[in-house]
Amino acid sequence: MAKTKYVGVYIDNNGQYFYETELGTDRITGKRLRKKGRTNQQGRKFTSALQAYKELVRVKNEYHQVNGYGNYHMTYGQFMNTVYIPAYETEVEESTFYVRKRTLESMRDRFANIELRSIAVEDVQRYRTWLLSDKGAGYSQAYASLVFGMFRKSLDMAVDMQYLEVNVSKKVKAIPKGKAVVPYWTKTEFEKVISTICLDDFYEHLCFVMLWTYFMTGIRVSEGTALWWDDVDFKNKRLRVHHSLYLRNKSNWKRKDYTKTEDGKRIISLDEDTIQVLQAWKQRQSKIGIDDFVFSYDGTPMIKSTLARIIQRYAKLANVHRIQAKGLRHSHASYLINEFNVSVLILSKRMGHSSPEITLKHYSHMWSGVDELIAEEMTGNINIRTAEKSGIAFNGNQAVKK
């Protein structure tokens, strides 16, 4: 190892430049803070003593700007375990944290032993590529976008807490969500599905009621599993959607008195067919002492994944394509648009969206069939009558000669 003309910068026996310095004392551990590096902030090796010196100056300035706050050598894993994950748990719904916890732990494990201040642009770029690559995580673009966004937010908090001066992940391009396409059933496909269900069987009757209600109302999955009979107004033919259900298992659930969004609380008008379907099911339920949850065979709420299994089972029997549980919500929108040419405003209120713009964002492509109907109605609407003799005298050089 040999010194260079720059204080704190050296060159090793292999000709590689590096810096080494002391920053002060860690305010938590009381130990001297030593910093040594062979690469710049982007993870590139130094090719000159000047480059190493510039990076050393940057590191010193960064340290002094945050006054040595906390543990300068804190790893990403320590930060996630002691700061970010506990804070995240207090800021989101219990159900949200339960779903996202595994993702947060996966992020933590990826960078667990790397110091926060040592995470380089190259590390972030490799992580981005890994999320999207088939040889890596192989996530869908939408999910990869979600995970990468969560990672960036974790480093945002590290900046806010003054563990970092800058969020290095912001120097890497974000992963776009992409256009999500949710398969749905047309009216004809839905008719094929329900034709395979036998109402004589109690559980199959429940399956029919669930598929029918979701298709005919467009409610969200968690809104449907939270429905009580008190929410059904048979006299005025209305359905009150004011609750959602958080459920881990059949014995661990909570009926929340709010929906996904503030505008999700709504009253939906019911057609006469749906009223009759629900009345028949209520009578059958009451015979075995069930009088609370609409979708239940034993007095307890249905597990969210049950709807997906019901769809899979009867889609296979009907020989129609399988859809997700939320596909029934999209099916309802398609049904109203294509069968009744419903307006955006009415559909928005029925779906519980905060604005018609949100409705158009998700369902604008479904109005394509309506455009064809308009074209048909336009045919013959204008009386075509042209002049028998021209009333214009053309002068000069004309492109078309008589």
Automatic annotation (TrEMBL):
Show the stretches that span the lipid bilayer: none
Top-rank taxon: Bacteria
GO MF, any single term: DNA binding
- What Pfam families is this protein classified in? Phage_int_SAM_3, Phage_integrase
PROSITE patterns the UniProt entry points to: TYR_RECOMBINASE
| UniProt keywords, alphabetically | DNA integration, DNA recombination, DNA-binding
User: Which CDD domains does the record cross-reference, listed alphabetically?
Assistant: INT_ICEBs1_C_like
Gene Ontology annotations of biological process type: DNA integration; DNA recombination
What InterPro entries is this protein classified in? DNA_brk_join_enz, Integrase-like_cat_sf, Integrase_catalytic, Integrase_recombinase_N, Integrase_SAM-like_N, Tyrosine_recombinase_XerCD
**Taking every annotated instance into account, which residue ranges of this chain make up the domain Tyr recombinase?**
180-378
Q: Which family does it belong to?
A: Belongs to the 'phage' integrase family.
Which protein are we looking at? Site-specific recombinase XerD
- What is the scientific name of the source organism? Pseudogracilibacillus auburnensis
